[in-house]
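README, section 4: Worked example with a bound small molecule

Sections 1 through 3 covered apo chains. Here we extend the same pipeline to holo records, where the ligand is supplied as SMILES alongside the sequence. The molecule in this example is flavin-adenine dinucleotide. Nothing else about the input changes; the structure line simply encodes the ligand pose together with the chain.
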Amino acid sequence: MKQPLTIDRRSVIRALAGTTALLACPAIAKAKPRVVVVGGGPGGATAAKYLKHGGDELDVTLIEPNRLYVTPFTSNLFLAGLKPYEALNFGYEALAARGVGMVFDTVTAIDRDARQLRTGGGARISYDRLVISPGIDFRWDAVPGYSPEAALLMPHGYRGGEQFKLLKRQLDAVGDGGLIVIIAPPLPYRCPPAPYERASMMAYALKTRGVKNARIVILDAKDHFAMQTLFIDAWERHYGGMIEWQDPTIHGGIKAVDPKAMTVVTDFETHKATMVNVIPPQIAGQLGRDAGLADDSGFCPVDAGSMRSLLDPAIHVIGDSATGGEFPKSGFAANNEAKITAMIIRAELADGRRLPVRFTNHCWSTIAPNDAVKNGARYEPRDGKIVMIDPYTSQLEESPELRAKQAREATGWYVGMTTDIFG
Ligand SMILES: Cc1cc2nc3c(=O)[nH]c(=O)nc-3n(C[C@H](O)[C@H](O)[C@H](O)COP(=O)(O)OP(=O)(O)OC[C@H]3O[C@@H](n4cnc5c(N)ncnc54)[C@H](O)[C@@H]3O)c2cc1C
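The generated complex, written as structure tokens:
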């Protein structure tokens, strides 16, 4: 049976007090400030790594239930058969080797007054400073008929490795004349171009297998989407009419999904589909909401200069759970926010250097193996909000060589990013 684990500064000091080393070396009598990070994705894992960067002044613990992280980024290439599933998997061994204490468990509650976490395994873990990056949760009831159980038949494929695998199994089973329906969410949600990259990669998979007369219908909650003209142009060039995008004025709203019948009812028609990918509206990960760190938007408001929660100064919220202006929800952004947060905490608790806060985000979308588009911007904090400056996006008239170069850039970005997070 698992023993409850209690770790707090007092017990660390008590343990140290019993050692002769303590008498010989008074410098170690002072316990290090304890920083606990929850969530081992791009936000949390990067923060834990960079809190240890440049010195060992902090006691850093990362709590994450899974021993392997499966990257949502490039999961669409896995769907297309362009990447094996194992290539999306990353472990935490390198972080542990850097001195990050790994706890594989789920945080079930944050006692903000006592500055203590409770975990599903029964541990109580105290913190001087807490960083949480628990990702997203869904507004399950926003799509009538959808639920966590329904997601086992109509996958969202938006978090967790099993969902990506299920989506691929269903895609691989689509035959001639098959109909795929993708329900795309309203903003804000993680990686705005991802549903459209997904439609592209599904079409690529069907085309490569020689599936005839299949269709992909995107029923969107939005009246436009990121890099829309670029996607629609490339869909015509590569997949000749296979992908159809409908805005709310065309479909009239989603009335219901029925996972057993595999139907989607809109205001105007009932789609009898071969598979349905429902991407529901999103909110902050449950932990952030349960801890009272979210506002009416469902996300956790932060000060953009420090990613500090506006509702609790001892807690920083980073990654997709946070909201603080115009910064997008992406792995790139989460990684950036994590490094800024680590710098701020090291400056406050470990006498580290504090540099001006700047963010960047670049996002590549693969439409076909040698045809990738990108957009991005720089961001800076102004009056506590993150403000976008210098946005750019790919152009319609770009040469095939430039598009192929961007596809190679996307591959390079993935290697660099995952090395920065988990290496
Ligand atoms: C199809 C798709 C394509 C994408 N493509 C790109 C792209 O090209 N570029 C890009 O930059 N981004 C992309 N993204 C977005 C990117 O994946 C997310 O923005 C990013 O993963 C957010 O990181 P995070 O740390 O906030 O959350 P997550 O990556 O979701 O990590 C959260 C972690 O917290 C853990 N956790 C949650 N609750 C608890 C708890 N109570 N206790 C302990 N641990 C907990 C979870 O297990 C998880 O490991 C894509 C997303 C999708 C779905």
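What to look for in the output: The two ends are 33 Å apart (CA to CA). The CA atoms of residues 42 and 131 lie 13 Å apart.

Section 5 describes how to batch many such records.
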